[in-house]
Design a protein that fits this description.
By secondary structure, this protein is mostly helical. The chain has a domain of 36 residues. The longest helix has 41 residues. It is elongated.
């Protein structure tokens, strides 16, 4: 199978408003003297750790009951269930007759 002629040509031909990559053409820009990147966009994470030390501690203390209480309750439940399982599966637990 032979490739078509347009594949061999490389760049597009004909009258097009937009040019090829690097030579896009188009109307001339008027009134734009320079482009500047905002300093806030250059370093968006500047000072994040220092601000967390002061503000983050307060937020962490305010939110502690929402994660510390469930974690503590979960730890207590797991600890109780492990101890109960060991008691149920030992001679001592079976000899007490506490479990059917």
């Amino acid at each position: 199978m032979r490739p078509s002629a347009s594949v061999h040509s490389g760049m597009p031909t004909g009258k097009t408003w937009m040019g090829w990559w690097g030579d896009l053409g188009g109307p001339k820009q008027v009134g734009i003297s320079s482009y500047v990147v905002s300093p806030y966009r250059q370093a968006p994470m500047r000072g994040a750790v220092q601000h967390w030390v002061t503000r983050g501690y307060k937020r962490l203390a305010q939110q502690a009951m929402y994660f510390a209480i469930p974690i503590g309750a979960g730890y207590a439940l797991i600890s109780w269930s492990i101890d109960n399982n060991h008691l149920r599966n030992t001679k001592k637990g079976q000899s007490q007759g506490l479990f059917p």
